[in-house]
Amino acid sequence: MASPLPDPEPNVEVHLKVSERRIEIDLAYPDFKVGLEYQGDHHRHDRRQWRKDIRRGNDAVDDDWSMVYFTGDDLQNLPDVIARTERRLRKRGWTG
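Below the sequence we write its predicted structure tokens.
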């Protein structure tokens, strides 16, 4: 599916100032501090992974990142994910 958005960067390593941690974001627009994270079923079934993901997301938000989370169900309706991502980018100055 074609998207009006620029291509995000995959596997972006970010050093968070507030938590002093390094994290990796699945897909990101670093210039706008917008990240996209896919939450597969393994995240839901592995308690340790789930807790790690929640902490990482909260740490990113504390450092002024806007995070978009999506699951396999969302892949069935990509226009919604694209629209949500576009709203986040526009709030942060992307003019397209």
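The longest helix spans residues 47-62.
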